[in-house]
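Researcher: Go.
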Amino acid sequence: MTIDDLYAYRNLCKEINAIQFQINDTALAVRSPSLGGMPHGTTPGDPTARAALKIIELEDELNRKSNEMIDQAKQIETWIDSINDHEIRAIIRYHFLSGKTWRETALAMYGSTTRQTAQNVWKRWYRNYIKSVESVDKC
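Model: Structure:
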């Protein structure tokens, strides 16, 4: 597992949230009442039907991304289970799986609002992890 894999998972979660926001925003626009006497757009066609099609497309994308997220989460969970250090497993879960900032992770882990606390523990551990993986690969 690489740090890029972990951040890719975090970013995928953010993308899923953005798609959900887009679906809600589009649905809200469809439900908004039109005000009588107000000028209307000149775009031909049915705006409600266009919005419904857009929502269907977004929901399909959301389902694809959600399935991808589930697959990535399973891989990360398998990797986490192989780590003997409870502290590191908790840091990974807070920061990468739950999407907390380093500051929030430090607060949850150590009661500290200094983000470097958790981040430094993670960086030290990850550096050693990479060295151990590289030494195994050389054998």
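Model: The mean pLDDT is 88.
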